[in-house]
TrEMBL record:
<dbReference type="InterPro" id="IPR011150">
    <property type="entry name" value="Cutinase_monf"/>
</dbReference>
<feature type="disulfide bond">
    <location>
        <begin position="134"/>
        <end position="141"/>
    </location>
</feature>
<protein>
    <recommendedName>
        <fullName>Cutinase</fullName>
        <ecNumber>3.1.1.74</ecNumber>
    </recommendedName>
</protein>
<keyword id="KW-0378">Hydrolase</keyword>
<dbReference type="InterPro" id="IPR000675">
    <property type="entry name" value="Cutinase/axe"/>
</dbReference>
<dbReference type="InterPro" id="IPR043580">
    <property type="entry name" value="CUTINASE_1"/>
</dbReference>
<dbReference type="Pfam" id="PF01083">
    <property type="entry name" value="Cutinase"/>
</dbReference>
<dbReference type="GO" id="GO:0016052">
    <property type="term" value="P:carbohydrate catabolic process"/>
</dbReference>
<dbReference type="GO" id="GO:0050525">
    <property type="term" value="F:cutinase activity"/>
</dbReference>
<comment type="function">
    <text>Catalyzes the hydrolysis of complex carboxylic polyesters found in the cell wall of plants. Degrades cutin, a macromolecule that forms the structure of the plant cuticle.</text>
</comment>
<comment type="similarity">
    <text>Belongs to the cutinase family.</text>
</comment>
<keyword id="KW-0719">Serine esterase</keyword>
<dbReference type="GO" id="GO:0005576">
    <property type="term" value="C:extracellular region"/>
</dbReference>
<keyword id="KW-1015">Disulfide bond</keyword>
<dbReference type="InterPro" id="IPR029058">
    <property type="entry name" value="AB_hydrolase_fold"/>
</dbReference>
<keyword id="KW-0732">Signal</keyword>
<keyword id="KW-0964">Secreted</keyword>
Length: 206
């Protein structure tokens, strides 16, 4: 589907909330280039414990205000949810505007695809909670000349989803995924520490 409105329809209230803003002229409010693939990966990684809301406003202050309102609405519906946001092209600009309007702790992570501003996000988030993707040759986020590079990010969507999930509570992950995270080196420390952490996380999940 190219549309998702779990927040505005009040049909979510899951452990993870994902708010995405599409690129210019994409269909629906999810678009086709980034949104559906990231959502599919997030559903898989979170065992479908996810609320999805997309935003079809244009870039600018009004776009940031709309996403900000969606974040506030998600918090009011479920104060315990973990909110992560993402934007593609003009949507990345909206994420910038949103971050500047929020307080620390209201969103837990952000991913930007093809960011025209080529700038750091506002201090709402620590830099370790922000990830950017810009394809080689993309004239929008780099000084490239390959227009087609702006349209192909399918190889990055799973990495983006994994980053967003790893940035929030391990409790939304399945035991298998926690095991994977601890033993693939995403949790730092020696082997003994990883084993102990894995056991603690499994007990927490149960």
């Amino acid at each position: 589907s190219s549309t998702a409105n779990n927040i505005t329809d009040n049909t979510g209230c899951k452990e993870l909330t994902y708010i995405f803003t599409r690129g210019t002229s994409e269909t629906g409010n999810m678009g086709a280039i980034i949104g559906p693939e990231v959502v599919s990966d997030l559903k898989s990684l979170s065992s479908n414990k996810i609320t999805v809301q997309d935003d079809n406003t244009n870039m600018g202050t009004s776009g940031g205000s709309t996403m900000t309102s969606l974040v506030k609405q998600a918090i009011s519906q479920n104060p315990n949810t973990n909110i992560v946001v993402s934007g593609y092209s003009q949507g990345a600009v909206i994420v910038h505007n949103t971050a500047s309007q929020l307080s620390s702790g209201e969103i837990q992570a952000a991913v930007l695809f093809s960011d025209p501003l080529k700038a750091e996000l506002a201090n709402t988030l620590d830099s370790s909670k922000v990830k950017k993707f810009c394809a080689t040759g993309n004239p929008v986020c780099k000084n490239g000349s390959d227009v087609m590079a702006h349209l192909f990010y399918s190889d990055d969507t799973q990495t983006a989803a994994q980053f967003l999930v790893s940035a929030v509570s391990f409790k939304i992950l399945s035991r298998t995924q926690v095991y994977s995270l601890s033993y693939e080196g995403r949790v730092q420390g020696n082997i003994d520490n990883k084993k102990q952490l894995y056991l603690r996380l499994v007990l927490w999940y149960i």
